[in-house]
Specification:
Layout lengths: L3 H21 L1 E9 L9 E5 L12 E6 L2 E3 L2 E5 L2 E7 L5 E5 L4 E6 L4 E6 L3 E6 L7 E7 L4 E3 L5 E7 L2 E8 L6 E7 L4 E8 L2
Parallel strand pairs: 1-16, 3-6, 5-11
Antiparallel strand pairs: 1-13, 2-12, 2-14, 3-4, 6-9, 7-8, 10-11, 14-15
């Protein structure tokens, strides 16, 4: 019984600290509208500031090749992330990128190749076997980002309070930038319009 009580007290303290920490962060939410486009999906919205640090995930993030397309069409990751390119189609596929200057070769159904993105930027993903296939890997130097859904909605949670440059990137439209301030325990709403 003596051991259980200190354990319960320790768990209570940890829960209080986690609750306090989450109330000290803020959220940026809103809608990014792709003017003149059929959908507002796939816009990458990120918060940038000096001194931000990122930690790439321990496991690879997957971009699938399925039904003769890359899924997702736009994949946002932090610098240092390894992306696994899986082939789920019944035909061989290839992955190469003009910006990254890499060609991962061609492989059959069920196999995958990996590539680690160590430099920030936008990398077009193409398939030499099927030239109509195209996707984008957007590599960021910020832990705060989101990709819009079909309605253009986005939400970035757990943001440390402060001033940021909000950057919205789209494959076919001009990028846009806005200054935003994040307050602890609050949600700031931002609506953006991207144009040609």
């Amino acid at each position: 019984m003596k051991l259980i009580l200190p354990l319960v007290e320790a768990l209570t303290i940890l829960l209080q600290l986690a609750t306090t920490a989450s109330s000290q962060t803020g959220t940026i939410a809103g809608t990014a509208t792709a003017k003149g486009m059929r959908t507002s999906a796939g816009i990458v919205v990120s918060l940038q500031a000096t001194g931000l640090t990122t930690n790439p995930p321990a496991q690879a993030v997957t971009m699938d090749q399925k039904e003769m397309q890359f899924l997702p069409h736009v994949l946002a990751v932090v610098k240092g992330t390894t992306v696994k390119f899986l082939n789920s189609d019944p035909v061989p596929h290839n992955v190469f990128s003009p910006e990254g200057k890499y060609n991962l070769g061609t492989w059959p159904t069920g196999e995958a190749r990996e590539y680690r993105f160590d430099k920030a930027g936008v990398y077009t993903q193409l398939c030499r076997v099927h030239p109509e296939m195209e996707a984008f890997v957007v590599v960021l130097e910020t832990p705060y980002f989101a990709t819009t859904d079909a309605g253009g909605h986005f939400e970035i949670q757990g943001v440390a309070p402060g001033k940021y440059k909000l950057v919205a990137w789209s494959e076919k439209l001009k990028s846009t930038e806005h200054e935003v301030t994040v307050e602890g325990g609050k949600t700031s709403n931002v609506d953006l319009t991207l144009t040609r």
